[in-house]
Amino acid sequence: MKYYMKSKLFKIKEDFWIQNEENEEIFFVDNKLFAVGLQFDLIKDEKTLYSVKETVISLLAKYQVKEGNEVVAEVNKKPSFMRDSIKIESKYGDLNVTGDIIDHNYEIYKGSEQIARIHKEVFTFTDSYNVETDFEDEAFILTLAVIVDDIIDKQRSK
């Protein structure tokens, strides 16, 4: 399945919809207004599927993903120079996100199997991504894609 994420041009609180291939709004990203670091809920049909909170005291990006009250993933940015590397310890096992800092193309792997691709569109006024996945939990993959976008934004602002 292919999804599209597009953030707003002028944002105080960056909430946005994730659309499917038919341009239907499927998932809603509800960012917390007065949060320190990234905090958001991924919502479908008015039900919160995942909640994310960034640990801001870490030198490298670090995030916790919850499903209800249960921590289901820890996301950690790893130091690298030319390629981004993000490690995820999750309820689905260990996952890795690798990508190109310049081209902003990322792949999510479970072992040696690619389970998703995240591609940033370059000639747009806002951050726009195409996410392709056939993974069993597409909402989880989309949650990770929002985290990857946050990591890219923070790298760009340094």
TrEMBL record:
Coiled coil: none annotated. Gene3D superfamilies: LURP1-related. It comes from the Bacteria. InterPro entries: LOR (IPR007612), LOR_sf (IPR038595), Tubby-like_C (IPR025659). It holds the Pfam family LOR. Belongs to the LOR family. This is Tubby C 2 family protein. The lineage of its organism: Bacteria, Bacillati, Bacillota, Clostridia, Peptostreptococcales.
